[in-house]
Specification:
The structure is a single chain. It is built from 12 helices and no strands. By secondary structure, it is mainly α. The radius of gyration is 26 Å and the shape is elongated. The chain folds into 2 domains: 52 residues, Arc Repressor Mutant, subunit A (Orthogonal Bundle); 161 residues, Orthogonal Bundle (Tetracycline Repressor, domain 2).
Length: 262
């Protein structure tokens, strides 16, 4: 129950508001609504919009249809609350990682991208992702929600990339953030909607993507700065473009000399 804020300061009214308490009935109602939304999110994650209805949610939540209508009104209201709750949970997870300043920026960037990659590999989350995009083509509110999610997600990545390499311009960090997001979305699309995604090579594809990201973040010079050397010993000062290359092939004279000594 929201407190009514007076239009002008009144000491007696302020004291009354401070002493105002939620009743046990209010708390029970809020708890029940939260539980219903959790059930609705699970249903949407499993079956998408096609399997979503107030009747199904009421049945799974163990409440009557009239109770559900009393709490949420139209089915459209419940559906939009469900979508918002579903997407907000993922954004909050990424924000919690980003805000943990006890961890180095490089580690937080790795954790954020690993989290998003894990979602991209989850068939349930992926099904919801494609369902939301399909809905966005005919629902302006869903389209706006997806846009807001991407803006938030890319801004978060941009901030982390700029912290990892402060020498980057903001525009450059934003470009790399967009590339990372596009790579991860591409893996999800190819893995679940195109040809079979190169069975057994997921880890290799992901490793290759991450190598490209690091090349873009640190450039052709050094891979890390002094702060991140502790996380990746032995890489400080090395040229990342050549760090993983095989030795150059020997010329014919050198090969003959090597064979004569073996």
């Amino acid at each position: 129950m929201k407190r009514q804020v007076p239009s002008s300061y009144n000491p007696a009214q302020a004291a009354k508001l401070l002493n105002q308490r939620e009743t046990a009935r209010d708390r029970l109602r809020e708890k029940r609504i939260k539980e219903i939304v959790e059930v609705a999110v699970e249903l949407f994650a499993r079956e998408g919009a096609a399997g979503f209805s107030m009747r199904r949610v009421a049945s799974l939540a163990g409440v009557t249809l009239s109770t559900l209508q009393h709490y949420f009104g139209k089915g459209e209201n419940l559906f939009k609350i469900t979508i918002n709750s579903f997407t907000a949970g993922y954004i909050e997870k990424l924000r919690s990682i980003d805000h943990d300043v006890s961890l180095p920026a490089r580690q937080r960037l790795d954790m954020v991208t690993d989290e998003v990659i894990a979602w991209a590999m989850d068939p349930v989350v992926t099904a919801c992702y494609f369902e939301l995009f399909a809905l966005a083509s005919r629902d302006k509110e869903v389209a706006k929600l997806i846009e807001e999610i991407y803006v938030t997600y890319h801004a978060l990545l941009t901030d982390l990339i700029a912290q990892v390499n402060p020498m980057l311009t903001r525009d450059r960090a934003a470009m790399i953030a967009l590339m990372i997001g596009a790579h991860i979305d591409g893996v999800m699309i190819f893995r679940f909607r195109a040809t079979p995604a190169m069975p057994g090579t997921d880890n290799k594809v992901i490793a290759a993507m991450k190598e490209v990201w690091l090349r873009e973040i640190f450039g052709p010079a050094t891979l890390t700065d002094g702060r991140d050397d502790r996380e990746h010993p032995g890489m400080a000062g090395r040229n990342f473009a050549t760090a993983h290359q095989s030795p150059a092939p020997l010329n014919p004279q050198a090969r003959r000399k090597r064979r004569s000594t073996t």
